[in-house]
Amino acid sequence: MIRPLSERDDAHALIARETERVRAGSGRLVLLRGATGTGRTAVLEAAAEHAEARGLRVLRVHCSPHDSAVPFSAVRACLSRAPEFADPAPAADGTDERDTAARLWRLLRSYAAESPVMVTVDDVHLADSASRRWLVEAARRVGRLPVLLVVTERSQYDVEPGPPGLTHALPPSLVRTHTLAPLGDDAAAALLRDALPAAGAAWTEACVRAGAGSPLLLRALLDDLGGTPPRHQPQPVPDTCAALYPGAYPAAVSWWLENAGPATAEVARALATLEQAWPTGASGGTGGPRAPGAAGWGATAIPSGTTTPSGTGTGILTGTGAGAGAGAGVGTGTGLGTGLGTGLGTGLGTDGIDPAAVIAEATGTDPARVTGWLTAMTRLGLLRPDAAGQPRYAHPLLRDAVLTGWPTERRERAHRRAAEAMLHRGGRVEAVARHLVRTPAVGLPWALRVLRDAVTVAVDESRPGDAVAYLRRALDEPLPDDLRQRMLTELGSLEYVADDAPSAIARLGEALHLPATPRDRVRTALALSTALAGRGEVGTAVGVLRRTEAHLTGDPGLTRTVRTAAVLLADHDQAQRQEAYRRLGETAARTPELVGTAGQALLVRFEATAGLIPAEQAMTRVRALLAEPGDPLSEPFLLGTAAAVAQWADRLDEAERLVERGLAGQHLTSLHPMRHALLNTRADIAAARGDHRVLLAHLTDAGVRRTPWARSAPFNTDAHALLALVHTGRLEEARRFAAGFDLRQAPDSWELNRFLYARGALRAATGDPAGALHDFLECGRRQSAREVLSPVVTPWRTAVAECRLALGATEEALVLAEEELRLARVWNTPRVVGRALRVLGTATGGRRGLDLTEEAVRVLREAPAGTDLELIEALIARGRQLIDAGERARARDCLREAAERAEHRGAVRLRCLARQALHEGGARRVGTARTGSDALTGSERRIAELAADGRTNAEIADLLHLARRTVETHLTSAYRKLHIRRRGELPTALHPSPHD
């Protein structure tokens, strides 16, 4: 039998049957049809080998377009191979075609008289017309001769219809036609595994897609990949031909395009160009695996490889030159054309435009022909529909190969034509803009309008990276200086948000030197100074604002805004801060109107942190300032400052409203120094409420934006996240997180001080009071140097006092605790006073200490609802003191309340401390609960927290490097312990309200 090839058994069986028929004395014409690269030649060679093995004489010829001008060149080349026969060339006297055909027929009969004969003609569509007519006539006569004619013919839907096929004029009884379908995914994978048994599944799948069902492309790809897939560190199949050598794969794709003709090549490249501008993501990948013979994009399924007695068979991609219907296949031979395009829908994708219509308009091609080509190429496997239904090349490497060798100017022209076509057809603005970013300047108003509208869409959807690309391209268009200045400011702001601070600073610096109105200049200065401060260059940032202020004349509102911004940014640097507040205070004392409401609010904040005014007075003053009319440009400063003061005063709901008002006025395209401060206050509010879930989202939620400072510099949100890890008992994770920061490289900042305090809390919780003492003292030293004395920001004195107590230095602890209480009573909110009383009571001891902790509990019970973490610590401290005083029953009451509150708040560390104290106080049952959030293991709680945040099981598995089954097992156990049935109940079950 014929040597088996992948999915070619039907073709081999057909030729084997016809071979035996010829041996019995009866001839036939067998036509093998198929698209470029489907393996027609391989099947023909296998048939010839089989025929020779069965005793047939095989006469071969491979047709070439170079010989198409010489009459009978193909037949002569085939029949003149045996030296015992004379040269069948036409006589020199100009004997006509009929006489030459007769001589060639007699020559074939003479072969047949010797033994059965197989004549193989490869690529008959390239043969000269005389040879094609001779073969058709021979097919009519071989029925009574032992002659088997086996002919291969390219049959593919091309945009320009080819000539009629070889057998279109023959009756079905004289021809056996078989169409070779592309390889299915399974067959292609099997071919790869035969060549490379060690290849992995992912690597094989990528090769299958890049091979697109074509044995030609598969073998060329294997040649370029060196025949050996990477074994130890598998790398994906490259997406570009530049990564391939020696280039057999792009050469094979180029050969396919040349065979298809210039019109088809133009459409193929237009699709590749169009696809470059399509969005990636959910609809960015190709469709699922293609089963052998499966219908493609919008096509009606037709069985592949169907053998029929004539050229009207339903083989894949067969068609007539003038096939019926818009979707009729048009190939180089006869065949059923119906059904190929009849099932093709509009194919509208994510951009709302029919790709076929855009390609047709961009290339000047008949839309029906483009639709038919898309359907045909999908059936061949070169295209696969994505999730949105758009036809895409099966692999990015295939798309890149289609574009290889196409000049850049041609690509840019194609993108411009596509943009114009989509605009003409009412396409989405971003769909048009994605093509414009790949073209040089258009110089027409519509291009700039489209790009700016696309920026607005991308910004509204929080995609700063896309907005940056559109703005960069928009700046290539002709622009007046004032518009260029505004767009550069907008671009710099977006680049900063997109984590490209160096580019942002360069853009904003350029914008600052262009002509602009005073208000636009101030906006640019605010954005540039924010970006500089974000990189730790606070002095430079303040200098930019002061130089801008020097150029402002006749606009006191803008001057106040610039001065306020300078003070706010100076807060990040100790030396700059002192000078800024000194100047602000002196100005306010001389001429308050030059300071403005925002500047006065900053002075209130300064006095609050310096321990000079109580909370009630601070709130009265900021509320009065909020009631005054203000400039929109300076309003964020006022709102953000007031929100910080309200948070310190435990007016958390009021602070939250102010934060949301301030953020509502912020925009990605307007970089403002107050945005970071507002986000910090939002985190402070969550910490005051003990909302650990929100704080820990900072560690896992990719949607939480980080200001692009150096990674060595921790933020306020990092400090809160570290404290939340400590409170929830995740100490090992907290150690790893804290170790990720090199504080020696961090610039001086109040946020660094916050992180030092948080790291000290971690060290204290892990039994390292000496290390904790070092961090707390350093935090205190830095805060004091900044004139931040009030415990409302960081209560470092009480933290140091607790470390001193742990190390046996009671006198030093008492001094610090008393000073903290004095400052706390100045601010006079329950939380700061209660904390100071609790630590002083612990340091004092005895009856006096017991009275102080009792007062601490009483004061903290008056604190706002939901802020009871300090109360829990006070209850634990009081319980321990009652145990020492011998009042164990009262102690157990305090400690049980503390344990219950800690359980309710998810404060694992405090709960453990309360239970330890209960055990020391003689409580009989302090074991671990079997149900409720208290019963969750560390892994169960971590997975449940992520699920409560909305993550899927697959996302959790990827994030934690676990098997998906493990995640499901932990969640099932968590549901049982929490007495819930649905995922939506997790947030409430894990973090119940204190009033539940």
From TrEMBL:
Protein name: DNA-binding CsgD family transcriptional regulator
High-level lineage: Bacteria, Bacillati, Actinomycetota, Actinomycetes, Kitasatosporales
Pfam families named among the record's database cross-references: AAA_16 (PF13191), GerE (PF00196)
GO MF entry, a single one: DNA binding
Domain HTH luxR-type: 929-994
Biological source species: Streptomyces griseoviridis
Keywords: ATP-binding, DNA-binding, Nucleotide-binding
InterPro entries cross-referenced by the UniProt entry: AAA_16, P-loop_NTPase, Sig_transdc_resp-reg_C-effctor, TPR-like_helical_dom_sf, Tscrpt_reg_LuxR_C, WH-like_DNA-bd_sf
Alphabetized PANTHER family for the sequence: TESTICULAR SOLUBLE ADENYLYL CYCLASE, TRANSCRIPTIONAL ACTIVATOR DOMAIN
Keyword match DNA-binding: yes
SUPFAM superfamilies: C-terminal effector domain of the bipartite response regulators, P-loop containing nucleoside triphosphate hydrolases
Signal peptide, first to last residue: none
